[in-house]
Amino acid sequence: MKNSYLIGILFLFVQCDFSTRIDTTAAAKELKARQVKRVLPQEIVNQVDEWGQQMQTKPLDTALRSQYAVRYLEGDAQSLRGQVKDVKIQQVLDALEYSQSMNQEVPPSIQKNVAGDSLYYIYPTAKNQLVMIGFSKVQVIQKMDRKLIK
Fold first, then answer.
1. What b/e readout covers 13-36, taking b as 16+ CB neighbours within 10 angstroms?
2. Is the overall model pTM greater than 0.85, yes or no?
3. Coil, strand or helix: which one is 74?
4. What is the pLDDT along the chain (150 residues), one digit of tens a residue?
5. Which of 23, 74, 80, 118 sits in a 20 to 30 Å window from 9, CA-based?
């Protein structure tokens, strides 16, 4: 009887394959990487500001536009107003046009559309034109540096 228990336990031990054990530290890291993270609105605005400043200092070629999935518009306030359907952005463009007509300095700004699903980085050029770079919030969150998301 004792031998049969011993043989049974030995048989079970041989059947266990310890070579396929899961590395728990790697599994824990993978779970943490896949964890749903919260992105605050201020973090999105900060990211758009950072990218907008980068795009303002270097030429915005097609590759860079597609990398950040942005909408790029350039021209005077009236021509931009005709290209943008959002009422709030049109009002911002009217205000920028007035500021430029009064020879006021127009600093770069970030504006949100009425729906709140897009952010526009707007800055003036040396030729008294305006550049609008439109960012989709969804795209910003997807392209953000994962280390910055808490």
1. eeeeeeeeeeeeeeeeeeeeeeee
2. no
3. strand
4. 667 777 777 666 666 666 666 778 887 888 777 776 788 899 999 999 998 998 888 766 777 777 878 999 999 999 999 999 999 999 999 999 999 999 999 999 999 999 989 999 999 988 889 999 999 998 898 888 765 555
5. 23
